[in-house]
């Protein structure tokens, strides 16, 4: 006798609720269909469901996302870095208190004396016919952030070596919920033959029909739930083993919306607007925001960053502010809309040569006109770099391009051998946007504050006469 096992999954929603009513419809209908056929079925999320870029996630600090997952009927979830490192310890500690699903994150450890009641290292479930399924979850080890928030993420391979052998003894099927990224998933599949399925996320990869490595099928459904996925396993009861593995993803955009979910989202948005409606300042005139020019608000925000981090200098890109700030009452909702990024302040140590190279790079069209997606940035374009604590004298080549003539620190030309503490957005500590920042051996991250918290402070304390 053969039996099919169905897993419907989502990953990397990032609180992008545009497709959520369609996703809810897909998941609910999938479950109803399988239950009507007496087929085993589970709903799974792979993390980064919460992203404070959205007012609902910001106002409810992720708990509304959990409510939405409860309403759909999820069975299991793991956490992504957006759940893990964008909120204070207590907020994550209680994020899933009301979850109707089990949260599995094998490599998340609290550095306080209290482990959240919702946190499981592994879980087991089984079908009515007795097929035992073991589930493990892993998240990406951003310990530079996690440990500042009193959490620790252990090495994924270390956890798999600890748990997979035991799961093999206690389960017929092993499922890994992985918020590690495709490269890591592929390496795990090569090393751990006993894992049957890896449902992945984090790197926003879309595997339309899965990828087979050794005994493992790997799948993922992109980002923002424009797609959702299905894994189908065929179990042979006579042979007591899986004889077939399939994975598909489905486009959510053309599907009918779940009207109850749409109504819940509307209600949550009204409540979020009210919760974020606390006034910060009353402006007599609007504040201009320009991505390729110096503006008063960006200069004062960069000054605030330097002062708040007690750095020698600071630099921020003007593209961080997405819109003008209108005259009249300015609320936290306005600040969130204008600066939605989950980006923290960071201080790096640089010598004068490295700081000079950063200033030079910041003037290039390649950087200022870069359309960036990722690294926490939720805007359109990097924009002009604004400095505090240093004065940059520039001139123009015959072709009109700007270049650095002299950089002054405390009125004197910059000492190339001197060491400086430079504050900036943590965005630049990743990738190769500003290599000198990324490769700095000293990086001090400031959490859980976002740059928008500094923007609110700047408006309240430095723009009161505006």
TrEMBL record:
InterPro entries: 5'-Nucleotdase_C (IPR008334), 5'-Nucleotdase_C_sf (IPR036907), 5_nucleotidase/apyrase (IPR006179), Calcineurin-like_PHP (IPR004843), Metallo-depent_PP-like (IPR029052), Pesterase_YunD (IPR011240). Residues 8-205 form the Calcineurin-like phosphoesterase domain. One of its GO terms (molecular function) is nucleotide binding. It comes from the Bacteria. SUPFAM superfamilies: 5'-nucleotidase (syn. UDP-sugar hydrolase), C-terminal domain, Metallo-dependent phosphatases. GO terms for biological process: nucleotide catabolic process. The keyword Hydrolase applies. Keywords: Hydrolase, Nucleotide-binding, Signal. Pfam families: 5_nucleotid_C, Metallophos. Residues 289-427 form the 5'-Nucleotidase C-terminal domain. Belongs to the 5'-nucleotidase family. This is Metallophosphoesterase. It comes from Lentibacillus amyloliquefaciens.
């Amino acid at each position: 006798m053969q039996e099919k096992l169905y897993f419907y999954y989502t990953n990397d929603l990032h609180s992008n609720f545009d497709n959520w009513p369609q996703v809810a419809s897909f998941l609910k209908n999938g479950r109803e269909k399988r239950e009507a056929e007496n087929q085993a079925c589970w709903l799974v999320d792979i993390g980064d469901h919460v992203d404070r870029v959205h007012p609902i996630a910001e106002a409810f600090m992720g708990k509304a996302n959990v409510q939405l997952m409860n309403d759909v009927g999820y069975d299991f979830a793991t956490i992504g870095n957006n759940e893990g490192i964008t909120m204070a310890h207590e907020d994550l500690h209680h994020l899933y208190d009301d979850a109707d699903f089990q949260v599995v994150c094998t490599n998340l450890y609290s550095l306080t004396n209290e482990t959240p009641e919702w946190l499981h290292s592994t879980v087991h479930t089984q079908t009515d016919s007795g097929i035992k399924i073991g589930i493990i979850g892993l998240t990406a080890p951003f310990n530079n952030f996690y440990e500042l928030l009193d959490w620790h993420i252990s090495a994924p391979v270390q956890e798999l070596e600890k748990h997979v052998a035991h799961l093999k003894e206690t389960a017929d099927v092993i499922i890994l919920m992985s918020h590690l990224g495709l490269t890591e998933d592929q390496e795990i599949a090569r090393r751990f033959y006993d894992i049957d399925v890896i449902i992945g996320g984090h790197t926003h990869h879309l595997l339309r029909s899965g990828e087979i490595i050794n005994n493992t099928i790997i799948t993922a459904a992109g980002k923002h739930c424009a797609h959702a996925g299905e894994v189908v396993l065929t179990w042979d009861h006579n042979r007591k083993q899986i004889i077939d593995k399939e994975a598909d993803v489905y486009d959510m955009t053309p599907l009918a919306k779940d009207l109850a979910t749409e109504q819940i989202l509307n209600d949550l948005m009204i409540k979020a607007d009210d919760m974020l409606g606390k006034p910060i300042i009353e402006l007599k005139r609007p504040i201009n925001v320009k991505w390729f020019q110096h503006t008063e608000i960006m200069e004062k925000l960069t000054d605030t960053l330097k002062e708040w981090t007690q750095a020698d200098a600071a630099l921020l890109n003007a593209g961080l502010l997405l819109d003008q700030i209108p005259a009249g009452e300015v609320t936290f909702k306005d600040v969130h809309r204008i600066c939605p990024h989950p980006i923290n302040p960071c201080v790096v140590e640089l010598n004068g040569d490295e700081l000079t190279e950063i200033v030079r790079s910041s003037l290039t069209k390649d950087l200022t006109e870069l359309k960036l997606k990722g690294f926490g940035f939720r805007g359109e374009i990097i924009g002009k770099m604004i400095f505090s604590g240093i004065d940059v004298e520039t001139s123009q080549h015959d072709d009109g391009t700007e270049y650095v003539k002299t950089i002054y620190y405390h009125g004197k030309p910059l000492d190339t051998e001197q060491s400086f503490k430079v504050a900036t957005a943590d965005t630049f500590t990743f990738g190769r946007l500003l290599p000198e920042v990324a490769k700095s051996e000293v990086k001090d991250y400031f959490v859980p504050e976002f740059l928008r918290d500094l923007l609110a402070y700047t408006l309240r304390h430095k723009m009161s006469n505006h």
